[in-house]
UniProtKB/TrEMBL annotation, chain A:
Sorted UniProt keywords: Cell inner membrane, Cell membrane, Membrane, Transmembrane, Transmembrane helix, Transport
Subunit text: The complex is composed of two ATP-binding proteins (UgpC), two transmembrane proteins (UgpA and UgpE) and a solute-binding protein (UgpB).
Protein name: sn-glycerol-3-phosphate transport system permease protein UgpA
All residue ranges annotated as the ABC transmembrane type-1 domain in the record: 71-283
Superkingdom assignment: Bacteria
Topological relation to the membrane, as annotated: Multi-pass membrane protein
One BP annotation, GO: transmembrane transport
Subcellular location: Cell inner membrane; Cell membrane
Family: Belongs to the binding-protein-dependent transport system permease family.
Keyword Transmembrane helix: yes
Predominant place of localization: membrane
Chain ranges passing through the membrane: 12-30, 75-94, 106-128, 156-180, 201-227, 266-287
Function of the protein: Part of the ABC transporter complex UgpBAEC involved in sn-glycerol-3-phosphate (G3P) import. Probably responsible for the translocation of the substrate across the membrane.
Automatic annotation (TrEMBL), chain B:
Subcellular location: Cell inner membrane
Similarity comment: family membership: Belongs to the ABC transporter superfamily.
A GO term for molecular function: ATP binding
Principal localisation: membrane
Keyword RNA-binding applies: no
UniProt-listed GO biological process terms: carbohydrate transport; glycerol-3-phosphate transmembrane transport; glycerophosphodiester transmembrane transport
Annotated ranges, domain ABC transporter: 4-235
Name the UniProt record assigns to this protein: ABC transporter domain-containing protein
Origin species: Prosthecodimorpha hirschii
Amino acid sequence: MEKRAIFQGRLLPFALVAPQLVVTLVFFYWPASQAVWQSFLQEDAFGLSSEFVGFANYRDLFAKADYYRTIGTTAFFSALVTALSLSIALFLAVQADRQLKGATAYRTLLIWPYAVAPAVAGVLWFFMFQPSLGLVSQGLRGLGFTWNPLLDSTDAMALVVMAATWKQVSYNFLFFLAGLQAIPKSVIEAAAIDGARPVRRFWTIVFPLLSPTTFYLFVVNVVYVFFDTFGIIDATTAGGPAKATETLVYKVYSDGRVGGDLGGSAAQSVILMVIVIALTAVQFRFIERKVQY
Amino acid sequence: MAEVVLTGVGKTYAGGVTAVTDVEFTVPDGAFCVLVGPSGCGKSTLLRMIAGLETITTGTVSIGGRVVNAVEPAERDIAMVFQNYALYPHMSVYDNMAYGLRNRGTPKAEIETRVREAARVLELGDLLARKPRQLSGGQRQRVAMGRAIVRKPQVFLFDEPLSNLDAKLRVQMRVEIRRLQRSLATTSVYVTHDQLEAMTLADMLVVMNKGRVEQIGAPLDLYRRPETLFVAGFIGAPPMNLIDVAIGPDGLRPVAGDAGIVGGLGIAVPATGARLGIRPEHLHVVGDEPAPEGGIALSYTVSAVEAVGAETFLHGRLGATGPDVVIREPGTIAAAPGTVRRVVARRDDLHLFDRETGRRIPLDA
């Protein structure tokens, strides 16, 4: 039996998909193709003329040590933020999943940070950790720690990692909580009768059953750290000190907007685009196959 | 092997809702005990209290002579089969069955032997490498059984294990569960809302209603001598005919409709009224012969006839306008709708209940 609805006219189907197509074309394909085209051009110092240079921008990029350093920084930053935000969120979700009094209020409070814009979050953390005025900095100094994210690159990295993690925990928490609640209670009870203590139950039953959620969140988090942390980095450290917190996406901005190297910046965006496409492809592949139980 | 003893067991939830009140019974070692009742009667709560999945508000549960109120489910030496099977979806059939043994540190070779043995008994041998989602409902059910039997627990608990299966498979699995329980001789407590399942499986039947035990006994004893109106109406299919009656000048008469009962029972009926119970299979359509000694005769207006071959069901009314009564006659009988027939029942097959309290009024006194 035919289950699909058949539209008689020729125009109606196109009219129905048009808004979606227009949005995608205007906001993705057009800027993306501009970036690709731009990455093959080189502008003069005054931005008056540009010439086609082929892959020169890309060659330049990979010839410079600082691009590799940025890749390293990004890898370190994303590994840390993803690992921290996933594990903290999972821990909190497991706690919230237990039937405790006040669980609803607790859940709501945990979700709030997600409603804070990245730049605002960045400013918040910047103020809290500002070396001379910040509340936390003063506390740290009182405890005998020297703390200066404006000068010390480790402190700066710690600050952006904390801010980016804090921002992402809410999102992960929501998904983990939903994932936990989708696990049938009777399966957990069966495991309890089967003699598995809570910790073992978690690792042998709950965690494997959560794996589709975990994998989805892993990809989403990596993409988040790659792109959406721009606002946080810009507001807290602006990539410094000495580019210690400059990630790939921040470098696109600083080379292009600040440094005026549009071609090089475009080449970097194209590389980032390829990374995201690859990540998404991997995600779909895996979700279809491996992470099924 | 162990006996399960419940003493004054009750459950009240935090919100103040009482699910189970003062339940008291003993399941002898090796017996198959079925808790039966309508949904919401507290039977599942009671089972979960025996399993340790619900806390016990009052009273004690003991398994094999040990009070287990404060004992974790894992330490109670029980195994449970859930309504939705609760198989571990990410594990193979083998791992599902081995999981409980591994958690208890059973040696690998021993696990292998026990799982293979269970798989042989349950005919799961070819499916050990499959995941639960690759199995049919009946196979999943058997894996859930396998997971219970490999552990060799003191007690099996079943929570409506057959209600997700289709009718044919349900009958098949019912027989299989009974056979398995007999051969293992493991004490079992089984919850169901299906009275037919309860009757066929149980050594000992516990009928529950509104959180209380209505009656406990062997299935046929409950069928033959229900102590309360609830049990009378619940056990047996089609259900017992229950007719409100009062004592008139000429003996018993129905409250509603015209007089249709001939023959008094010669016993005192409470002023509040009584309810007469007669099972459909104990009413017989007869010609002019008198009612059996001490029994009753009824005038019956047939309204519909259902012949299913082995037996015939008659639907109709007592007298011309009295209460509905169903009759179940073996074989086929000729009875046209609209005709009035004479129906008799033996005294031994009559049940009388106090309408107010629902308790049985003995007829054989």
